[in-house]
Automatic annotation (TrEMBL):
Residues 2-202 form the Niemann-Pick C1 N-terminal domain. GO terms for molecular function: cholesterol binding. This is SFRICE_002538. Pfam families: NPC1_N. The keyword Magnesium does not apply. GO terms for cellular component: plasma membrane. It comes from Spodoptera frugiperda (Fall armyworm). The chain crosses the membrane at residues 204-225.
């Protein structure tokens, strides 16, 4: 089912606030993000967690607050802005797991297309979520993300389980090296430094050269001395 595909942790709990129609709508709304992040399943699974929580969690009132409501008709109101209390840990881990993901069929990173004017180079978790929460971009209504408890509304940060990009779901591999540098094999260790060659604590090569020099100098001087004609000591 759509619930099991996108929101397995909520589906496993057996209780949700989603109708089939809402799940169909969720699937259609997250499809653009799925198309951009699908190369790295860990990234996409992290990302979709907070959307599932906002849409289907039975504990929404613990971390969501309708901060702006306008009349819809004579009997109903419509929410135009919500405050979403989301843990900094979740935002940071999700951002890090998606930072290097390549957008399919482009020469760009996914966050180049999902972080507005900042692009991937200058994007931060706060900038990314602010851009995605803007009603003018991806969100169906304005979403203002906060990271701290909001006592006046009884909010505590929502902190769903996340995993780094090099760690897949149980039984699944992590993301590829191209989309996650942590998945790349470690470089071989550097070779150990060479042990210097010494003789009695001195540079061994210098000692050998000095010995050779002394030997050849001694042989040369000996040869010169032996081959020089000696004066005849007997007078005529």
């Amino acid at each position: 089912t759509i619930m099991q595909k996108y929101c397995p942790s909520i589906a496993a709990g057996g209780v949700s606030c989603c109708s089939d129609e809402q799940m169909d709508n969720l699937a259609s709304k997250i499809m653009p993000a799925e198309n951009l992040l699908q190369r790295c399943p860990s990234c996409f699974e992290n990302f979709v967690q907070h959307i599932c929580g906002m849409t289907c969690s039975p504990n929404q009132s613990d971390f969501l607050y309708p901060s702006e409501v306008v009349p819809f008709n004579a009997t109903h109101q419509r929410i135009t802005t919500i405050t979403y209390d989301l843990s900094a840990k979740y935002m940071n881990t999700t951002f890090e797991s998606c930072l290097q993901v390549q957008a399919p069929s482009t020469n760009q990173l996914a966050l180049d297309l999902m972080c507005g004017e900042y692009g991937a180079e200058y994007c931060t978790p706060e900038r990314w979520f602010k851009f995605m929460g803007d009603v003018a971009n991806f969100a169906p209504f304005q979403i203002n993300y906060v990271n701290d408890p909001v006592p006046e509304h009884g909010l505590m940060p929502y902190d769903p389980v996340t995993r780094p990009c090099n760690e897949g779901a149980p039984g699944q591999p992590g993301c590829s090296c191209l989309d996650c540098s942590a998945s790349c094999p470690a470089p071989p260790p550097p070779p150990p430094p060479m042990v210097p060659f010494t003789i009695l604590g001195a540079d061994g090569y210098a000692v050998i050269m000095a010995i050779v020099f002394i030997i050849f100098t001694t042989l040369f001087l000996s040869g010169v001395f032996c081959c020089t004609p000696q004066d005849n000591a007997v007078g005529e």
